[in-house]
Design brief:
The chain is mainly alpha-helical and about 290 residues long. The chain has 8 helices and 3 strands; from the N terminus they run αααααααββαβ. The chain has 2 domains: about 210 residues, Alpha-lytic protease prodomain-like (Up-down Bundle); about 80 residues, Alpha-Beta Plaits.
Length: about 290
Protein backbone atom coordinates (compact mmCIF):
# COMPACT_ATOMS: atom_id res chain seq x y z
CA UNK A 1 0.00 0.00 0.00
CA UNK A 2 1.29 3.49 -0.81
CA UNK A 3 2.65 5.67 1.98
CA UNK A 4 -0.15 8.23 1.53
CA UNK A 5 -2.76 5.49 1.90
CA UNK A 6 -1.14 4.36 5.15
CA UNK A 7 -1.21 7.90 6.50
CA UNK A 8 -4.89 8.25 5.58
CA UNK A 9 -5.72 4.99 7.35
CA UNK A 10 -3.79 6.06 10.43
CA UNK A 11 -5.59 9.40 10.38
CA UNK A 12 -8.95 7.63 10.09
CA UNK A 13 -8.09 5.54 13.15
CA UNK A 14 -7.29 8.69 15.14
CA UNK A 15 -10.42 10.53 13.98
CA UNK A 16 -12.62 7.53 14.77
CA UNK A 17 -11.12 7.38 18.26
CA UNK A 18 -11.86 11.06 18.95
CA UNK A 19 -15.41 10.79 17.55
CA UNK A 20 -16.29 7.73 19.64
CA UNK A 21 -14.75 9.27 22.76
CA UNK A 22 -16.87 12.41 22.32
CA UNK A 23 -20.03 10.33 21.89
CA UNK A 24 -19.22 8.22 24.97
CA UNK A 25 -18.58 11.28 27.14
CA UNK A 26 -21.91 12.81 26.13
CA UNK A 27 -23.86 9.57 26.69
CA UNK A 28 -22.27 8.79 30.05
CA UNK A 29 -22.64 12.36 31.33
CA UNK A 30 -26.39 12.11 30.66
CA UNK A 31 -26.52 8.66 32.30
CA UNK A 32 -24.67 9.94 35.38
CA UNK A 33 -27.14 12.81 35.70
CA UNK A 34 -30.05 10.35 35.49
CA UNK A 35 -28.70 7.63 37.81
CA UNK A 36 -26.17 9.15 40.21
CA UNK A 37 -24.10 5.98 39.82
CA UNK A 38 -20.46 6.17 40.92
CA UNK A 39 -19.66 3.28 38.60
CA UNK A 40 -20.93 5.38 35.69
CA UNK A 41 -18.94 8.32 37.09
CA UNK A 42 -15.81 6.16 36.96
CA UNK A 43 -16.63 5.09 33.43
CA UNK A 44 -17.36 8.71 32.44
CA UNK A 45 -14.03 9.84 33.88
CA UNK A 46 -12.28 7.05 32.01
CA UNK A 47 -14.00 8.13 28.78
CA UNK A 48 -13.00 11.75 29.40
CA UNK A 49 -9.40 10.59 29.80
CA UNK A 50 -9.85 8.55 26.63
CA UNK A 51 -10.90 11.72 24.84
CA UNK A 52 -7.72 13.46 25.96
CA UNK A 53 -5.67 10.43 25.00
CA UNK A 54 -7.40 10.19 21.62
CA UNK A 55 -6.81 13.88 20.93
CA UNK A 56 -3.19 13.42 21.95
CA UNK A 57 -2.89 10.34 19.78
CA UNK A 58 -4.42 12.10 16.79
CA UNK A 59 -2.09 15.06 17.29
CA UNK A 60 0.84 12.67 17.64
CA UNK A 61 -0.10 10.85 14.41
CA UNK A 62 -0.19 14.16 12.55
CA UNK A 63 2.88 15.65 14.20
CA UNK A 64 5.00 12.48 14.22
CA UNK A 65 4.41 12.07 10.48
CA UNK A 66 6.32 15.28 9.82
CA UNK A 67 9.73 14.61 8.31
CA UNK A 68 12.94 15.55 10.16
CA UNK A 69 13.96 19.19 9.86
CA UNK A 70 16.88 21.41 10.85
CA UNK A 71 15.70 21.62 14.45
CA UNK A 72 14.59 17.98 14.79
CA UNK A 73 17.08 15.85 12.90
CA UNK A 74 15.62 12.63 14.31
CA UNK A 75 12.00 13.54 13.64
CA UNK A 76 9.17 14.49 15.99
CA UNK A 77 8.04 11.18 17.51
CA UNK A 78 9.03 12.10 21.09
CA UNK A 79 5.87 14.24 21.17
CA UNK A 80 3.96 10.97 21.68
CA UNK A 81 5.91 10.25 24.88
CA UNK A 82 5.42 13.77 26.25
CA UNK A 83 1.66 13.52 25.65
CA UNK A 84 1.48 10.05 27.22
CA UNK A 85 3.34 11.20 30.34
CA UNK A 86 0.96 14.13 30.82
CA UNK A 87 -2.09 11.93 30.24
CA UNK A 88 -0.89 9.38 32.81
CA UNK A 89 -0.70 12.08 35.49
CA UNK A 90 -4.24 13.27 34.69
CA UNK A 91 -5.56 9.70 34.82
CA UNK A 92 -3.87 9.09 38.20
CA UNK A 93 -5.51 12.22 39.63
CA UNK A 94 -8.93 11.20 38.30
CA UNK A 95 -8.57 7.64 39.59
CA UNK A 96 -7.71 9.01 43.03
CA UNK A 97 -10.84 11.19 43.06
CA UNK A 98 -13.10 8.31 41.99
CA UNK A 99 -11.51 5.95 44.52
CA UNK A 100 -11.94 8.45 47.37
CA UNK A 101 -15.60 9.01 46.48
CA UNK A 102 -16.20 5.24 46.33
CA UNK A 103 -14.59 4.65 49.75
CA UNK A 104 -16.56 7.53 51.26
CA UNK A 105 -19.83 6.11 49.93
CA UNK A 106 -18.96 2.58 51.14
CA UNK A 107 -18.28 3.87 54.66
CA UNK A 108 -21.47 5.93 54.77
CA UNK A 109 -24.20 4.71 57.14
CA UNK A 110 -26.80 4.87 54.38
CA UNK A 111 -25.52 4.25 50.82
CA UNK A 112 -26.75 6.74 48.25
CA UNK A 113 -29.57 5.22 46.19
CA UNK A 114 -29.35 4.85 42.44
CA UNK A 115 -32.09 5.94 40.05
CA UNK A 116 -33.19 5.41 36.44
CA UNK A 117 -31.17 2.19 36.23
CA UNK A 118 -32.79 1.15 32.93
CA UNK A 119 -31.65 4.34 31.21
CA UNK A 120 -28.16 3.88 32.60
CA UNK A 121 -27.98 0.27 31.42
CA UNK A 122 -29.11 1.28 27.91
CA UNK A 123 -26.43 3.97 27.71
CA UNK A 124 -23.68 1.64 28.94
CA UNK A 125 -24.72 -1.08 26.47
CA UNK A 126 -24.51 1.51 23.68
CA UNK A 127 -21.04 2.40 24.97
CA UNK A 128 -19.96 -1.24 24.72
CA UNK A 129 -21.17 -1.44 21.11
CA UNK A 130 -19.43 1.81 20.10
CA UNK A 131 -16.18 0.80 21.83
CA UNK A 132 -16.18 -2.65 20.24
CA UNK A 133 -16.73 -1.14 16.77
CA UNK A 134 -13.86 1.31 17.33
CA UNK A 135 -11.50 -1.44 18.49
CA UNK A 136 -12.35 -3.50 15.41
CA UNK A 137 -11.55 -0.62 13.04
CA UNK A 138 -8.35 0.33 14.86
CA UNK A 139 -7.08 -3.24 14.77
CA UNK A 140 -7.75 -3.35 11.03
CA UNK A 141 -5.79 -0.11 10.55
CA UNK A 142 -2.92 -1.31 12.75
CA UNK A 143 -2.67 -4.57 10.78
CA UNK A 144 -2.58 -2.74 7.45
CA UNK A 145 -0.19 0.06 8.40
CA UNK A 146 1.78 -1.23 11.39
CA UNK A 147 1.17 2.06 13.23
CA UNK A 148 1.96 1.51 16.91
CA UNK A 149 0.03 4.57 18.08
CA UNK A 150 -3.22 3.20 16.64
CA UNK A 151 -2.43 -0.27 18.00
CA UNK A 152 -1.78 1.11 21.49
CA UNK A 153 -4.98 3.17 21.39
CA UNK A 154 -6.88 0.03 20.43
CA UNK A 155 -5.48 -1.86 23.41
CA UNK A 156 -6.40 1.06 25.65
CA UNK A 157 -10.03 0.92 24.54
CA UNK A 158 -10.13 -2.85 25.10
CA UNK A 159 -9.20 -2.13 28.71
CA UNK A 160 -11.96 0.49 28.94
CA UNK A 161 -14.60 -2.19 28.50
CA UNK A 162 -13.99 -3.33 32.11
CA UNK A 163 -15.42 -0.27 33.93
CA UNK A 164 -18.25 -0.06 31.40
CA UNK A 165 -19.28 -3.68 31.94
CA UNK A 166 -18.84 -3.17 35.69
CA UNK A 167 -21.23 -0.24 35.64
CA UNK A 168 -23.83 -2.40 33.87
CA UNK A 169 -23.49 -5.07 36.58
CA UNK A 170 -23.89 -2.43 39.31
CA UNK A 171 -27.02 -0.98 37.71
CA UNK A 172 -28.59 -4.42 37.21
CA UNK A 173 -27.88 -5.32 40.85
CA UNK A 174 -29.48 -2.08 42.00
CA UNK A 175 -32.54 -2.44 39.73
CA UNK A 176 -33.28 -6.11 40.49
CA UNK A 177 -32.13 -6.63 44.06
CA UNK A 178 -31.72 -3.12 45.45
CA UNK A 179 -28.04 -3.70 46.16
CA UNK A 180 -26.45 -0.26 45.93
CA UNK A 181 -23.09 -1.11 47.50
CA UNK A 182 -21.92 -2.92 44.37
CA UNK A 183 -21.84 0.44 42.59
CA UNK A 184 -19.13 1.74 44.91
CA UNK A 185 -17.18 -1.52 44.77
CA UNK A 186 -17.20 -1.45 40.96
CA UNK A 187 -16.13 2.21 41.01
CA UNK A 188 -13.24 1.41 43.36
CA UNK A 189 -12.13 -1.49 41.16
CA UNK A 190 -12.31 0.75 38.09
CA UNK A 191 -10.23 3.41 39.86
CA UNK A 192 -7.55 0.85 40.71
CA UNK A 193 -7.58 -0.40 37.12
CA UNK A 194 -7.20 3.16 35.81
CA UNK A 195 -4.35 3.91 38.24
CA UNK A 196 -2.48 0.75 37.24
CA UNK A 197 -2.88 1.59 33.55
CA UNK A 198 -1.74 5.18 34.11
CA UNK A 199 1.35 4.01 35.98
CA UNK A 200 2.22 1.61 33.16
CA UNK A 201 1.74 4.27 30.46
CA UNK A 202 3.68 6.87 32.45
CA UNK A 203 6.59 4.52 33.10
CA UNK A 204 6.85 3.59 29.42
CA UNK A 205 6.78 7.25 28.37
CA UNK A 206 9.37 8.21 30.97
CA UNK A 207 11.67 5.38 29.88
CA UNK A 208 11.40 6.49 26.26
CA UNK A 209 12.18 10.11 27.15
CA UNK A 210 15.23 8.85 29.07
CA UNK A 211 16.45 7.04 25.91
CA UNK A 212 15.99 3.57 27.38
CA UNK A 213 17.03 0.76 25.07
CA UNK A 214 14.41 -1.01 22.98
CA UNK A 215 12.74 -4.29 23.88
CA UNK A 216 15.29 -7.09 24.35
CA UNK A 217 13.58 -9.33 21.78
CA UNK A 218 13.83 -6.61 19.11
CA UNK A 219 17.50 -5.96 19.90
CA UNK A 220 18.31 -9.66 19.70
CA UNK A 221 16.36 -9.93 16.43
CA UNK A 222 18.46 -7.15 14.90
CA UNK A 223 21.63 -8.81 16.19
CA UNK A 224 20.59 -12.11 14.63
CA UNK A 225 20.04 -10.45 11.23
CA UNK A 226 23.44 -8.73 11.36
CA UNK A 227 25.17 -11.88 12.61
CA UNK A 228 24.08 -13.93 9.61
CA UNK A 229 24.25 -11.25 6.90
CA UNK A 230 26.45 -12.10 3.87
CA UNK A 231 29.65 -10.07 3.82
CA UNK A 232 29.42 -9.03 7.48
CA UNK A 233 32.32 -10.53 9.43
CA UNK A 234 31.17 -9.18 12.76
CA UNK A 235 29.46 -6.25 14.45
CA UNK A 236 29.70 -4.21 17.63
CA UNK A 237 28.22 -1.19 19.42
CA UNK A 238 24.61 -2.13 18.67
CA UNK A 239 22.68 0.66 20.41
CA UNK A 240 18.96 1.42 20.41
CA UNK A 241 16.65 4.03 21.87
CA UNK A 242 12.92 4.60 21.61
CA UNK A 243 11.04 7.79 20.81
CA UNK A 244 7.28 7.50 20.54
CA UNK A 245 6.52 4.75 18.05
CA UNK A 246 10.02 4.78 16.55
CA UNK A 247 13.11 2.80 17.51
CA UNK A 248 16.44 4.34 16.54
CA UNK A 249 19.20 1.82 15.85
CA UNK A 250 22.94 2.47 15.61
CA UNK A 251 25.15 -0.41 14.49
CA UNK A 252 28.83 -0.86 13.57
CA UNK A 253 29.52 -3.68 11.10
CA UNK A 254 32.94 -5.17 10.33
CA UNK A 255 33.65 -5.69 6.61
CA UNK A 256 36.49 -6.89 4.40
CA UNK A 257 38.90 -3.97 4.04
CA UNK A 258 40.11 -5.17 0.64
CA UNK A 259 36.77 -4.75 -1.13
CA UNK A 260 35.73 -1.56 -2.86
CA UNK A 261 33.80 1.21 -1.15
CA UNK A 262 30.90 0.53 -3.50
CA UNK A 263 30.78 -3.14 -2.44
CA UNK A 264 31.00 -2.27 1.26
CA UNK A 265 28.23 0.28 0.92
CA UNK A 266 26.01 -2.22 -0.90
CA UNK A 267 26.37 -4.74 1.95
CA UNK A 268 25.53 -2.15 4.61
CA UNK A 269 22.60 -0.74 2.60
CA UNK A 270 21.12 -4.20 2.05
CA UNK A 271 21.45 -4.99 5.77
CA UNK A 272 19.71 -1.74 6.66
CA UNK A 273 16.83 -2.49 4.28
CA UNK A 274 16.39 -5.94 5.81
CA UNK A 275 16.29 -4.59 9.37
CA UNK A 276 13.76 -1.90 8.39
CA UNK A 277 11.63 -4.46 6.55
CA UNK A 278 11.62 -6.85 9.51
CA UNK A 279 11.03 -4.06 12.02
CA UNK A 280 9.17 -1.22 10.22
CA UNK A 281 9.24 1.02 13.29
CA UNK A 282 13.05 1.29 13.17
CA UNK A 283 15.29 4.08 11.90
CA UNK A 284 18.71 2.53 11.24
CA UNK A 285 22.19 4.03 10.95
CA UNK A 286 25.03 1.63 10.07
CA UNK A 287 28.71 2.53 10.39
CA UNK A 288 31.20 0.47 8.38
CA UNK A 289 34.46 -0.66 9.99
CA UNK A 290 37.34 -2.73 8.62
CA UNK A 291 37.36 -6.24 10.07
CA UNK A 292 40.47 -7.31 11.98
CA UNK A 293 42.80 -9.49 9.97
Amino acid sequence: MARDSHQLLNLSGGLASVSVALALVALKAWALHQTGSLAIAASLTDSAMDLLASLGGLTAIIYAARPPDDDHAFGHTSAEDLAALGQSLIILASASAIGWAAITRLLADTPAPLAAESAGIAVMLASVVLTAALVGWQRFVARRTGNRVVAADSLHYVGDLLPTLGAIVALIASARWGIGGIDSIVALAAALFMAAGAARIGAAAFNALMDRTADAALVEGIAAIARGWPGVRGFHDLKTRTAGSKVFVHLHVELDGEQSLREAHAIAAALKRQICTTYPQTDVIIHQDVAAS
